[in-house]
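Action item from last meeting closed. Structure (152 res):
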């Protein structure tokens, strides 16, 4: 990847980092300034719901901030735009859409498909047996089967 393109990605990442940090400061100031002495229970519930929603957004942004920091480190180390699984170059269009990505589209699809195949159909959670093998998987007839079981 050429230096001009790298500088462009670095600029985007730095701007996004600054935007997230300023929003976090703004949220902190708003939450400390709010008067929590609201007599109406419905108003209190609305305020609490809004506060909870705002905190969920900030938590997501905190996770994104960590990914941005990692991407900036990869730029400085010369590893930006290289897939961490296969070592191939990540398509520029993918990087433009998601500058913090660490996987090429093929590796991302493989990981997503692998993760989806290990989900329990009832709860959506990944299930493991005592021996560490994954549960469940689909058999040839579409029924769920155990990968392995311990002998009793």
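Sequence:
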């Amino acid at each position: 990847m050429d230096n001009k393109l790298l500088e462009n990605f670095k600029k985007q990442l730095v701007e996004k980092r600054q935007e997230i940090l300023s929003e976090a400061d703004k949220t902190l100031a708003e939450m400390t300034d709010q008067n929590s002495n609201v007599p109406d229970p419905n108003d209190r519930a609305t305020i609490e719901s809004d506060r909870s929603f705002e905190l969920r957004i900030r938590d997501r942004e905190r996770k994104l901030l960590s990914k941005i920091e990692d991407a900036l480190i990869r730029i400085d180390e010369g590893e930006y735009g290289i897939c961490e699984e296969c070592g191939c170059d990540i398509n520029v269009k993918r990087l433009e859409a998601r500058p913090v990505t660490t996987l090429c589209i093929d590796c991302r699809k493989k990981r997503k498909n692998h993760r989806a195949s290990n989900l329990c159909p009832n709860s959506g959670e990944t299930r493991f047996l005592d021996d560490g093998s994954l549960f469940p998987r689909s058999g040839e007839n579409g029924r769920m089967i155990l990968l392995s079981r311990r002998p009793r």
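Note appended to the action item: Helices lie at 3-33, 41-77, 92-97, 105-117.
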